[in-house]
Amino acid sequence: xxxxxxxxxRIRQIGTQPFTANTAIHWHGIRQIGTPWFDGTEGxxxxxxxxxxxxxxxxxxxxxxxxxxxxxxxxxxxxxxIWIHSRSAPRWRIPILLLIIMIEASSLLIxxxxxxxxxxxxxxxxxFSGLWEPQSxxxxxxxxxxxxxxxxxxxxxxxxxxxxECSLYSTTVVPGKTYRLRISSLxxxxxxxxxxxxxxxxxxxxxxxxxxxxxxxxLFIYSGETYSVLVYTDQDPARNYWVTTxxxxxxxxxxxGLAVLNYYPNHPRRSPPTIPPSGPMWNDxxxxxNQSVAIRARKGHVYSPPATSDRVIVLLNTQNRxxxxxxxxxxxxxxDIPHTPYLIALKENLLHTFSQTPPPEGYDFANYDxxxxxxxxNATTSDAIYRLQLNSTVDxxxxxxxxxxxxxxxxxxxxxxxxxxxxxxxxKGKFDPINDPKKYNxxxxxxxxxxxxxxxxxxxxxxxxxxxxxxxxxxxxxxxxFMGMGVAFEEGIERVGKLPSSIMGCGETKHLLKP
Length: 515
Ligand code: C2O
Ligand code: CU
Known about the structure:
Elements: E1 2-9, E2 19-20, E3 25-28, E4 54-61, E5 66-73, E6 76-77, E7 84-86, E8 97-104, H1 105-108, E9 111-112, H2 114-122, H3 124-128, E10 136-139, E11 169-173, E12 178-185, E13 191-196, E14 201-206, E15 209-216, E16 218-221, E17 226-232, E18 241-248, E19 257-263, H4 285-294, E20 311-322, E21 325-330, E22 333-335, H5 342-347, E23 380-382, E24 386-388, E25 393-399, E26 412-416, E27 421-428, E28 447-448, E29 450-453, E30 457-464, E31 469-475, H6 478-482, E32 486-491
Parallel strand pairs: 1-12, 11-19, 20-25, 22-23, 24-32
Antiparallel strand pairs: 1-10, 2-9, 3-5, 4-8, 5-6, 5-7, 12-17, 13-16, 13-18, 14-15, 14-17, 18-19, 20-21, 25-30, 26-29, 26-31, 27-28, 27-30, 31-32
The chain binds CU-O-CU linkage (C2O) and copper (II) ion.
Copper (II) ion (CU) is lined by residues 412, 475, 477, 480, 485.
């Protein structure tokens, strides 16, 4: 078995010391059943871990799968942490593992202060200069970067293809075998296509659930998703092959990320004799849409969803100006993270620390044209949360729309904390609340924790609000969440056990830390 996480490198110099080392670590895909306080989501479930502090997360990993961990501080997430936790576990014999992980904030992760980020948001160039676009894509932490393109330029000895530390990731396989690759993406912005020259891939797992196998030439993967694919090493054994990843969904200039599939006994560093094959067209939305639809639960491993839901929340995704700043909004509410974490605020009755006006359940369906630029002049910011009935069944419909640019709509990978959900369907255009639910897949829907909503399309899923706590649900594109593309769900707060004092100390929770 080999592991191939994909990440994205961005090299950025922003004035003097904009970074501090506050952090929190989120265990992405782990539901934290019974330990909602260790979800590692600053502002939701804990206060930040300060420089020099040690914070201990303890939680049960209740089923096998491929999961990620990353920083989750403010709205600025996963700056540095790129990791895949994978283990081969016997099929559906659910092992219980207790993980005890020590985090030292100062050495492991670098976050950016919220105040500083807000300053940057005021600076128009920061948003419009393409500063978000990555300069390089990394596979297994390795990639290539044109030193002269760095600003300021980097020394060639730091960034040099002949430096062995800068060689591409190479993984060795034996001809004539089958390999399972666990693939995950923790990009800050980009949607990716992943491919292995000359090899098909059979998709068998997504977000920790078995998939009815299907074959792809390129795997589309969005930030926060994980997949397992099977690869048969049935090609000419006399050479090595390129593994490539490239940006899709945006017309980016980022060069493809490269790695090498090394057929034993060729030298692992020997370059394949070919030019790395290019990926699919960045704007081929149909292929990406079709891959999403193709992902079904594996026969014999179907968990059936409840046949009906108790509540339907439609979330319109828009980009617009709010108070003079470019923001992303959900039903015209651009989300802000509170300073007192919700979990503590709700348990300790500090309800004045966030807005108590419930966020909207939908948008002006009859009059809203999702295909054109809309001003959404009534958009506001809020840190209000959706309060769900414990054990109720909730349907979420993500509705995409035009951005502030004409004829443009982006792909948003939405990630739900604390739960897996059944993916009921994807559609193009505006979701029809009468007829589209009739087409929902209730037979073999895959369970996931991250799904894309495709340009000008919609995505519907169902989940059971059966995990007491407060959970983030947001676009996994770092800048989008930062600019308001998220919501929060609460359920069963009265069932949450005693909170550990280690999560406290910020906002209005200081007084709870009695000496
Ligand atoms: Cu992997 Cu809230 O994110
Ligand atoms: Cu987004």
